[in-house]
Batch of 4 targets.
Target 1
Amino acid sequence: MNAATPAGAPVTYAAAGVDTEAGDRAVELMKDAVRATHGPQVLGGVGGFAGLFDASALTAYRRPLLATSTDGVGTKVAIAQAMDVHDTIGFDLVGMVVDDIVVVGATPLFMTDYIACGRVVPERIADVVRGIAAACSVAGTALVGGETAEHPGLLGPDEYDVAGAATGVVEADGLLGPERVRAGDVLVALGSSGLHSNGYSLVRAVVRQAGWALERHVDELGRTLGEELLEPTRVYAADCLALVERFGVAGVHTFSHVTGGGLAANVARVLPAGLVADVDRTSWQLPPVFGLVQQLGQVPWRDLEATLNLGVGMVAVVAADVVDDLALAARDRGMPAWVLGTVRDAVEADLTAPDVVAGTKGVQGGAVRLHGTYRTS
């Protein structure tokens, strides 16, 4: 049987929508930013099949534990694409990944990234990676490799998504976590820079329903709506590790990274069974963007606090005798810090009350009781 004669021009990879030369140009544009994150532990430079990291330093550990995390940015990338601003989204990616590692006291060693796009625009991809590299420098971690994949037909020409993974290390006897938390401990809030990178499906739905343009100037925000929504995530890793180094594991018992699920759900994950944290909603003033989202969309407060960070990006669970000094040290490093609540035995707590959150993300640990009314401007 004779094969049918194909109609039309020959099909090439470029004709199918993949431009390998554009990918090479993107690498050339980004490689200096990536190299800037490399210390002597990184071998091989940019462009190899695998990133190499010299782990000789781990031989000095008595019992090194490796910590790893992976995450993405979620639908915040839609804001970056709509505004055609791509050099900040990397802070969101790095923050979501390395700040999960620091929760257990681990130092992030290296990170890799993955970008999927409908069409490689070298300058756009380079901007994304430059942002990732800049955030890695803030976190003190090396960006050792990555991948850019062109997916024509699956993603639109100007669409992309980003993901990343990082590996860190912590000495076993320096591991932070629920096992260190005791009744009488205090929760110290470390302020967020804004929405960070969670809850954007809710936020975008509110904005869409209200018919607001990203270019709209909002007086209470002091800038345009788009600029506020694109505010980069605060990267806490280096600051949290500095607090642990100063106050030790006797002072800092664990951290909670406030991401998807909101404040209470994430704090509950780092408390042991039998303890409850009382969180005072009146202890801080909500940044204007959160009140704006609530009012603009008439979002129920319970839904809002189960979705957004409401101004608290990280929580340190600390011994009572270091609270004042630790909060001052955090503020000296440029982070807003205040007492959020306290930890107590759950014997007399009604864990079925509507303001109590427990058993989230598959963790059967402690509980968080929210009380008071949020202060809005």
Note: The first strand starts at residue 42 and ends at 43.
Target 2
Amino acid sequence: MNEGRTGVWFVGARGSVATTATVGLAALAEGIARPVGLVTAGSAFDGVPLPDFDDFVVGGHDVDETPLVERARRLATGGMIPAATVEAVAHRLDAADAEIRLVPRTARGSQRREIGLRADDIRSFRERHGLRRVVVIDVASTEPLPADRPEFHDHDALVAALAQDGVELLPSSTLSALAAVTGAGAPYACFTPSISLGIPALHAVAADAGVPIAGQDGKTGETLLRTVLAPMFSSRGMRVLSWAGANLLGGGDGATLADPAAVESKLASKNRGLHDLLGHDVVTPLHIDNVPDLGDVKTAWDHVHAEGFLDTRITLQTTWTAYDSTLAAPLVIDLARLLTLADQAGLSGPIAELGYFFKDPWGSEEHAFARQADELVSWALRTAVRRTTAQVA
């Protein structure tokens, strides 16, 4: 095994976020892109032993068979990525594409068998490239929340149900998460609002897996801004009465979130931080609209109404416009680097400090961005020391 090489296994490997991250990793490795937007490239992380960009090997699962380089060219046509960059790293995209597998499905088989097949793909990838570890990151499309079932609250009943042929009990995100943490022993992050490991009967399984995990739902734009601004109102004693938001987006995310069932989990995760920071009496209407002609550009509008001294009215309006995938991709790369560090240091279970990257952080109730940033850097420095100690031992 080569300690210097780490696999990144994307669930949703041909989607916009994974494609952008793969192009980004390739461009960084080739020296034709700057690490703009990568937290771990900042001076605060000087001295923290993180994998170099050329140390990663990319693979993954997807349901789409469109070649990765073609997906990247489509993103370039839409203006997200420079076409010259895509062509300069096309050979690396082809190499990554060769490591993408269709999501295994068994006709009338058990979901336990499906978990095993997905884990086999991850283990095979690791062995084929002589990797020390593989970090699995779910960046697939948002799933509808599954209807609650009694098995979700009883571990033994859930295990028994998973073994039955023809029973589709768990959503795909949960199958992929279990394949990673229990089947392949791989560090895992859920960058989507899909339920993943959020089923009560699986909490202990995730904690006992012996690998670091992080989630959930990447904090990239509007929610990032909210978790910066909301503590300001609280600190200055200005009472927020309402915080309304509207999101306009097209592309694959827009089409996915046009489904009322799929958007439910997204809306919940986007508002949870506001309520934790400002209180549950704040009115927080929020809606997401699919506007196909916008493509991959996302625009978010917020209107904040607060109460000031002597019953005065305070209004703040914000507009945030960006390619959401180019906001997400560097964070995904950061997570791959930091989960590698956590794994090298022997950490396991939810890494609370990685909540910095998420709307609904596992293992943490902290949402204020400035505090999260301080906690992340402190954790990285402590973990670097622990990693060195573990390697010496």
Note: The chain has two domains: 2-218+326-392, 222-322.
Target 3
Amino acid sequence: MKLPTHFKGIRLVVTDMDGTLLNPDHEVSGRFFELFDALSEKGVIFAAASGRQYNSIVSKLQPIRDRIYVIAENGGLAMFGKREIVSTPLDALTKNTILDSLSASRDIHPVLCARNNAYVTGHSPDFLRILKEYYTEFEVIENLHHFEDEVMKIAAYHFESSEKYIYPLVTDFEQSLMVKISGRHWVDISHPLAHKGFALEKIQQELGIGPEHTMVFGDYNNDLEMMSLSHYSFAMANAHPNVAKAARYSTLSNQEKGVEIILERLLQSLD
């Protein structure tokens, strides 16, 4: 681990979910909830930031869902309770152009991520089983191109490697959209302002909290913009090399409760 010399002055803690706060079984530890309560009593504010849909995030954090900021869909949507802070949807024409590019391979599984639901086709039962972990609310429809409601982002999944098989098909969109390799199997394509950093900056402005009082935890490329907004940026031991390079500090892996270890130190510094 690479640690700062002190932990004083932290007012906002922001943590990614998969590969960071969640353990390899996609669970939040009981100790995290204990630390959340103890730090909240001392005035520390928390935010959860993920590529997951809003409903999936709050289902993992059910006991505290109304006491935290939630950055969902990689920053495409940010909420505090029922109050919307950020919403940056895709337009319909862009959505279909992206789907056309992804259709070049039948091994790519696109997901239309709407505000309260997700939409997929049903041609892969294996993918639908995986989808249930990341999307608590989803619906199988016949044709994604014909979907006309608001879409926050398109997530695409490949069973082997998103970086190898999905990303090359969508690199051209980087000139006008946000394209993120958000996990080993996932690539997310969204509005150019739909990233975790944009949403976090809005939250910081709302709270009057700057980078010098912000702590961020992350593990993958969709966390990079958040790292630049925190003087206390931590890469997990299991982080992508890009994140390890961008973060000022490091902690143990999500399997080893790396987030909780740093929060323990933060709590001790406030006693």
Note: The longest helix spans residues 258-270.
Target 4
Amino acid sequence: MKGAGSADLQVIDRFDGGVGWLAYPDETMQRASHALATPDGIWIIDPVDADGVDDLIAELGDEHDEPSEVAGVAVCLDRHKRDAAAIATRHDAAVFVPTWMSGVADEIDAPVSRFAGELGDSGFESFVIRDSSLPPWQEVGLYNPDTGTMVVPESVGTASYFLAGEERLGVHPMLRLTPPTELRSQGRPERILVGHGAGIHEDAAAALERALTSSRSNTPSLYAKTLKGFLTG
């Protein structure tokens, strides 16, 4: 599921205000990382490290009038510590963890700052997507109403194992019967960046609505596709 060995950086999302990449493009999990250019500097979200990441961050800073320094590295899912500490250390920045997220800060080998509401002065407001003990799952989303960019680290994605039928965006297999309807409360995003797979940059609000409304009805076909993949893989 996860890539091993030498990383091979591949850019998957490039838009006005940010860039996304896969460190291991051939892995099943398609772990996606993002850098966002904001008035506060560049924010790195749930990153997986690879040769070329720092160059990608520098290019993003050069392309915008915003400050080019890394303002911080944010962990938006309790399981997404990934390479946050390594990248934050290289850029002399802190790792930012939501105030309510437990069991994460102590496992990060870098300075940690807690946040609630807006992520620094980035313009991205944080909101709770899921905070549960069964299954253990703490996830925060980010949304910038001025740019229409939403970041959802886990509850929805575009990697193949998220998708059923004609879905462009799908609910996580474990949440299919209890879809994250909280995502509707943030308005109609113009762009959705996800933690697994490439982002949605066209008709994002419609893709999200379809993902939420078809989540339960498409569950059998998704599970059947997954089982077939295991049996024939």
Note: The chain has one domain: 10-232.
